[in-house]
What we know:
Blueprint: E1 2-6, H1 9-12, E2 20-24, H2 31-41, H3 43-49, E3 60-64, E4 67-68, E5 84-89
Parallel strand pairs: 1-5
Antiparallel strand pairs: 1-2, 3-4, 3-5
Amino acid sequence: MTVQVLLPRLLADCTGGRTAMALDLPAAATVAGLLDALAADHPVFDRRVRDETGALRRHVNVYVDGEEVRRLAGLSTPVPRDAEVMVVQSVAGG
Length: 94
């Protein structure tokens, strides 16, 4: 199955300049599986999004079809066919 992944410009340097991509995933994919698939080709992206334990970093939010995964099942959240997954990295400063 194919899902659309949208990334902020801040993470584009970790994905070869890409801010959108289509990923082919197994039918029973989860957010963790999606991030694993991205990490296989983009290991620096993975280090920016997940910590050493594999958990999402505090300043990173992931949305599946507009729903934040922390409010659902976290990294175990299912990713349905044709879903739109957004990875959003917070920006701090003032």
